[in-house]
Amino acid sequence: MKLNKIDKTVLLIICLTLLVGLFTIYQRVEVEKQYKTAEIVLDYNEMEKFADSSEKDLSWWLKEFKKYGSQSVAIQEETIKLLIEDGKPLRAEIVSKLIENYNWVEFYKPEIVEMIMNKEIDQYDVVVSTKDKETYDYLVSGLNERYTDEFFNTYSFDGVFYIVLDGTADDLYYSPTLRIVNNEGLGVYEAKEISDSRLLNIGIGYDEEKINLIKDANLDVILRPINFPSHNEKLADAYKNANERYNLEPRLYILHGKEVLGFPDNEQNLLDYVMENDISVVMIESSEQREHIKQEGLKDLVEDSGYQALRAFTMWDYIRARNKYYNYEGAEEIENTLFRAITERNIRVIYFKPFYEEEKSTKFMTEAAEYERTFNSLQERLSEHNITLGKAQAMHEFHIGAKRLAVMAAGITLSCVFLFLKMFNIKHKFFNYLYLAAVPASAVPFVMRNIAEKGFSFAAAVSFSGIAIYFFMMHIKKIFISKKQYTNVQLMIYSTLILTASVAISLAGAVFVDAMLADVKYFLEMDIFRGVKFAQILPFGVFLMMFLIYFMNNEQEDSVKSVVNTTIKILNKEIKIYYGIIAGILAVAGYIYISRTGHETNIQPSNIEMISRNFMEYVLLARPRTKEFLIAFPSIFAAVYAASKKSMFYTGLFMLASAIGTSSVINTFSHLRTPIYLSFARTLIALGFGIIIGCILVVVLDWLNKLFVKLQERLK
Question: Which of 60, 190, 267, 449 is buried most, with the most CB atoms less than 10 Å from its CB?
Answer without folding.
Answer: 267
